[in-house]
Fold these 3 entries.
Entry 1:
Amino acid sequence: MTAPKIRHLALFARDPQAVARYYQKVFDMKLVHTSPDGQHCFISDGYLTMALLKHTTAGSAPVGLNHFGFAVEDREEIARRIKELGMEAPTKRPSDRPFAEYRACDPEGNFFDISQHGFEMVETGTEREKRKVPA
């Protein structure tokens, strides 16, 4: 199995659009997705996708790093390894999320996403289900 790669980071930002414009201008990152409500931006350097999530005072997390994500070949093997270490099994992400299928956390409680689908293509779980052909 190929080693999993960090391919996704998420930051809470007071003004996600301004932060996206900054990374676009400074690092030539590309805007790859904006949430339907216009609150969240997703930018990429062609390898790593960064989610810029709208921060509000009603939220439970501070501005800054929210989570990161691993692209994996075998999600079930990764889940087995996590459970083997006595950690909570990864939980399925809502089907309207465009990238990761599962979420887990490290021993300190830092969230990370696990995606067999990958972070390159904007596609929700609902859209992935529609593409499946019945056996």
Entry 2:
Amino acid sequence: MLLASVVAVHGLNPKRKDVVNHAWNTWRKPSGDDGRLWLRDDLPVSLPDARVFLYQYDTRIFSGQKQNFLDVANDFLARLLAKRRNVGS
């Protein structure tokens, strides 16, 4: 039985780090491939019936991206709703 969904959303990326690594390293200690990703490694032990998601998006301040905050927020909501539709299937 699914009790909850946990959605981790990383913060801003002011240092122009790689988008994927920034998202994962926000939740991994120490940073890098050898770090422990507690969302994957620890949280399921405490919440075995929860689904855990990591929402990854480009927050580099000087990336030249054309998306504004509302575009990113709408993308996040659309993806979350799509995942919710798959509950129980």
Entry 3:
Amino acid sequence: MGDTKKLSNELVESVRTGEKTATSALVWELEANGEKLPSVKDIVVVTNWKGDPSCIIEITETEVRPFGEIDERFAFDYGE
């Protein structure tokens, strides 16, 4: 999460404390990197900038939608 050490560590801490409960990714970027879309019940180890584990989360919901259709609830859960 995040593209700098400071941002990454802040986001990971927000996930760990429950402030951040949603995230997003670009479908085309996942596909280009050979990664699969997240699925409900996937278990993910969240790591800090150095790669140290911080917490474990379970994916409870996934949805693919255009950026212009992001709603207020998702933005709040995104926590940024």
